Amino acid sequence: MLNIDEISDYRDLLKDFYVQKKLKFPLYSYKMMGQKLGLETSQLFRILNKTLHLPTRCVPLAKNLLGLKGRASELFEILVAASKTKSESKKSKLYSMAMSLRDVKLRKLNTNELLFLSKWWIPVVLTAIEMNGGVAIVQNLVKQIMPVVSEEQVQEALRVLKELKLITPLASGRFAVSPVNFTSAGIPKVTAIRSYQNQLLSLAQNALATVEPSKRNISSLMVCVDDECFEDLNNMILEFRRQIQKRVEEVQKPNRAMQFVFSLFPVTEKLGNG
């Protein structure tokens, strides 16, 4: 299905939903979809063909039909409002709001690229090279990275980054760095991902003991939740991640690399209904 982050007209999302549903269930009809949205068949036909807009009363039903929640739900409402307004200035403002809500572009790691996550310092070396303007002097990188790494570990990282084409040599002697956000979604190499996350948790534990509080922020909360709250907290973490990624995109001259570790885990068993 279409990604809401890739569309400008909300009706494309509805049309794609109908087409995908029709492919899966040939008997699915405009009438059936219209009933879910509280619309007559003719109304839905005109909406999907962009000669009519979705009535305001139907927006919540549409979001429910499309399974939109949180940021995606808010983005859908803004796109509906932007499509309906006749004021160019208001339309421009609404589309600007929509752009600020769009997700960052992610690149999925293939099996070979999981090597990138095999050692915690490999992503750090990549980040350091980017901060250094493409300069990759091993001795200087060793001095930059914390906790301490060896020259051999930095050289290993450079070899991996070159193999994966995440850094490319330039005529000037510097490296071009691939500016990309990674996601492990869809990769069946759970062990590699868990290993990397364990390394990050160890780094956080080390920072708690070795980095002064003014240079870090490590905190925790103990909370009691129900199923709905748990789902909301998960969505809030995802939204916070997105906001961080959006914010760091604005940094023109970074002078340090920071590692975020998000953790939400149970410390009691779930109580039964009784």
Give an overview of the whole structure:
With 274 residues, this protein is mainly alpha-helical. It has two domains: 4-101; 112-249, no CATH class. The protein contains eleven helices and four strands. It has helices at residues 10-24, 30-37, 41-48, 59-66, 70-84, 88-101, 121-131, 138-144, 151-163, 190-210, 227-249; strands at 106-108, 167-169, 175-177, 181-183. α7 crosses α9. The two termini are 40 Å apart.
Name a few traits of the molecule:
mainly alpha
Structure class: mainly alpha
- List low-confidence stretches: none
> If helices are DSSP runs of H or I spanning 4 or more residues, what is the number of helices?
11
**How many E strands?**
4
Along the chain, the helix and strand elements come as HHHHHHEHHHEEEHH
What profile does the largest beta sheet have? 2 strands, parallel
Radius of gyration, CA atoms, in whole angstroms: 24 Å
Q: Give the DSSP E fraction (strand runs of 2 or more residues).
A: under 5%
Q: How are strands sequenced across the largest beta sheet?
A: 1-4
Q: Give the N-to-C terminal Cα separation.
A: 40 Å
Write down the overall mean pLDDT.
Answer: 84
Shape: elongated
* Total number of domains: 2
Helix content: 40-55%
